[in-house]
Alpha-1,4 glucan phosphorylase
Amino acid sequence: MPQKPIVFDAPQPEPRARTVEALKAEILERLTYSVGKDPAVARPHDWLTATILAVRERVIDGWMESSRETWRTGNKRVYYLSLEFLIGRLMRDAFSNIGLMEPVRQALDGLNVDLKELMDLEPDAALGNGGLGRLAACFLESMSTIKIPAYGYGIRYAHGLFRQEMSEGWQVELPEEWLAHGNPWEFERRESSYEIGFGGHVEPVQEPDGSVRHEWHPSEHLNAVAFDTPIVGWRGARVNTLRLWSAQPIDPILLDKFNEGDHIGALAESAKAEAITRVLYPADATPAGQELRLRQEFFFSSASLQDIVRRHLQQFGDLGSLPDKVAIQLNDTHPAISIAEMMRILMDTHGLRWAEAWKLTKGVFSYTNHTLMPEALESWPVALLERLLPRHMQIIYAINAEVLTEARTVAGFNDAQIANVSLIDEGGQRRVRMGQLAFVGSHAINGVSALHTELMKKTVFANLNTLYPDRISNKTNGVTPRRWLLQCNPGLTRLITDRIGPAFQDDIERLADLEAHAEDPNFQAQFAKVKHANKQALAALIKERLNVTVSPDALFDVQIKRIHEYKRQLLNVIEAVAHYSAIRAHPERNWVPRVKVFAGKAAPSYWNAKLIIKLTNDIARVINNDPAVRGLLKVVFLPNYNVSLAETIIPAADLSEQISTAGMEASGTGNMKFALNGALTIGTLDGANVEMREAVGPENMFIFGLTAEEVAEKRSRSEVPRGAIDNSPALKEALEMISSGVFSPDDPNRYRELIGGLYDHDWFMVARDFDTYADAQRQVDTVWADRRRWNAMAIRNTAHMGWFSSDRTIAQYAAEIWNVPTSRGGA
Ligand code: 26V
């Protein structure tokens, strides 16, 4: 159906009033007329929905304006394709960004409703696993803030990341129900739906001019239906769209089958279609190899590209201008099949020739790599792709032929180099390497920290980097200071505003003005007071959730992130055991009271990660109940880590644990959030820690451990860790305690294998980094004892985190990859 032309001067309503009175009236109105509840009997969830609907209207005013402007100016749009968006709660974010937090609070007060209570009711949208998904969410907010016309494209999972509960210290996974009470933020766009195919065959068709066109005839079809959520930038600068696709059957019920009496069969098709967007894959430990995952990837890639091309043609009429008007960022390889899908759309649907289609494709796409772990790099069996996406497999072969010819003739590659850049992994079962596909189909490829980008050039993409030099660049990650400072830490925000004025709220690098106050005893006292209040709130939460009493005067030492061997929660836990032992052995010493806080989810199939959770809980039980410890050490594992929990824990942290094996954490973003909130980092020279050290100064951080180079060297020699253990009595004792069952009397062998691995290969260098880590922890104690010094360091951490704002990261993508202007200038 042809689209109607856009009428820019079409009538539009008056923007909504923003006064307390107007909000109050509107909330009542929404409660009555949209939720359908009498205020007399309305329940908290009804008030929540009504409040979001009322504020949403103020967001919509900006949304319409932003979208009209982009249509009117014809500015380039950025499309961020991501299988994950870990957005968390939206209410405080939206209210605060459009400046309605206080008016809404007062409006609700006038209705005898407590805003805080409503905020706690909002589900935490966990459509992501960890850092990669949260980065996508920070990026969306920053794109709105610095005024880039942008869409996030992803999947509207019916169930996000599982809910974690503890059963006798073991992780149990329960389904997550974020949509149970509906989702007042989203708009279903039935009219924006696209057909997605799978399977079938490809037919070559001879064209009159002698060329051959390919027609793909899928054997399965389903619909992708759009759900839009507005994403508002700071001070309402711009409102962009997060468009999430939901899978729906083309025929909800096969009526013939139903009438024949095959009721289950009649519904089976529809269940199969809907299965595609039912759940988020919880695996960030190994790539999910299953067919359903590939279906998810193609499903959302295809829907997004059809939408992008449709919008482009509607506005500009021709495809030649695609790279001038469209930039598509691939968040890791999950949407990499988009490269082949774009080629298919351009050639098979729109009749473009190969060379032109390939030029346009490379012109629009760019790709971000988020991990170097060989076991984490996605690849799909050729046989599976041939069956599920036969046309795409043909296109991938054709791309590969072109790349390999170039590699041989232009670059003069030898056989080993050819095998390395090939899109097809020929070792064993033939597989398509999605990283290589994403690389060759993109004009720009980036890593997420300086170190990670360097390692990318030296390892996975070494040969592709030789073949296509200058394509790889670095874009160090960042975090949005709105959510991760202004909203989650209002006390610190007020204090900073009182001291250096409010300018930092609009230009976060102005936080550097705090440097001048770092040694001011009065400011230090206020800074510490804010921290103390945040720690009291966390202590209350720990009491409520775990019934463990912790003192807010103790040092809060925090490690919260996905549980992974490379992130080395095990190193932290072993050090806790060694410390416990030392406290018992030397009660006379002046120990610094510490609370070790852990939180994080383990992939359900990742046994060692789950065992590390159990170990943490086992150790916590023993230490917390040992009177000889006299409360000098407490260990707590807070269940169900998510964005909202992070927002409570981070402002309360004194010490941030960023202790991954060097070379393995691509960037980390939690590290930035902690430092921004005045925590000191204990960490390795890994990921963005390296750049954080440059920003805050090495004297304001506790760096320890092997470097990435040393790790690589030890691994290449298969060096055994024996020496490290034999030479460290403290480590040796701690390991023996754990493996002999001191913390698991009910099952003394529970940790034998886990600890045995450290003696045997110690792939993650836990034993070899132990001593320097333990030393760094004692250094932490020494500085803590000199509280003036500690506070000065904490203030300096906050002062120098401005650069780690996702606004800066996004401005770099805009200038160096997307070629779009921003409110900070450029293009
Ligand atoms: C990591 C690993 C590591 C070891 C074994 C297998 C495996 C599989 C997957 C992953 C994570 C994949 C992608 C990811 O989430 N990367 C994260 O991206 C963040 C945003 O750029 C970054 O800050 C984290 O360091 C990085 O792990």
About this structure: The pocket of 26V is lined by residues 130-132, 135, 284-286, 332, 370-371, 373, 375-376, 448, 477, 566, 665-669, 687 (CB under 6 Å). The longest helix spans residues 44-73. The mean pLDDT is 96.
